[in-house]
Design brief:
heterodimer, A: mainly beta, six-stranded mixed β-sheet, 11 strands, 0% helix, B: mainly beta, seven-stranded mixed β-sheet, 52% strand
């Protein structure tokens, strides 16, 4: 069974810092990897999707990388803002559904 | 923005009651999913559907049931709610976007259920 681990579990940074969230997984036989954002009491918002054949995806201040051989993905957030405060979830598709990590809770302080 | 809706958003109910959580999507997606998320824990798949009249159980055992009579509608029912059912329930649908090799999932806002 796919195990997904996200480190750190929580992170607090001052506004303007660049930061990296980490995701590791045990089974490299995946279709894709998605990074989501979850705000308190709300659903998930898809941030980036990396197909199995890709190495990275970029959207605005976000960049996600995928290294299947080492079972790792990173989400890089540039010039963080207080509005980036949320829980970030990594999820892998190995078939009909997604396997999620527990998430990294990010707090960006003004 | 994904057009997937869940009602109610919050529900507090007594033990033994029958409840139905609604999920609808207007994107015409064939595949739909129900996930359960306890506070501070991962989302776990409890049900999924590949299309009308198709329903399957997910990785996490659940006492809930689902139905898929229409493409856009995927309700989840608990016949007799118990405190152990207290959790957040998230509905999702997916489709393969142009140029992509696999599905992208879109999530609804979730229903936070509390059973007293």
């Amino acid at each position: 069974k796919q195990e997904v681990t996200q480190i750190p579990a929580a992170l607090s940074v001052p506004e303007g810092e660049n930061l990296v969230l980490n995701c590791s997984f045990t089974d490299s036989a995946i279709y894709n990897l998605q990074w989501f954002r979850q705000d308190p009491g709300k659903g998930l918002t898809s941030l980036l999707l990396i197909q199995s054949s890709q190495r990275e995806q970029t959207s605005g201040r976000l960049n996600a990388s995928l290294d299947k051989s080492s079972g790792r993905s990173t989400l890089y957030i540039a010039a963080s803002q207080p509005g980036d405060s949320a829980t970030y979830l990594c999820a892998l598709s190995s078939g009909y559904a997604l396997n999620f990590g527990k998430g990294t809770s990010l707090l960006v302080t003004p | 923005e994904a057009d997937i809706y869940q009602t109610p958003r919050y529900l507090v109910i007594g033990t033994g009651k029958k409840i139905t959580l609604e999920c609808s999507q207007t994107m015409g997606h064939d595949k739909m999913y129900w996930y359960q998320q306890d506070p501070g824990m991962e989302l776990h798949l409890i049900h999924y559907s590949y299309g009308v009249n198709s329903t399957e159980k997910g990785d996490l055992s659940s006492e809930s049931t689902v139905s898929r009579i229409r493409t856009e509608h995927f309700p989840l029912t608990l016949e007799s709610a118990r405190p152990s059912h207290t959790s957040q329930y998230l509905c999702a649908s997916s489709a393969k976007l142009a140029g992509e090799g696999s599905d992208t999932q879109y999530f609804g806002p979730g229903t936070r259920l509390t059973v007293l």
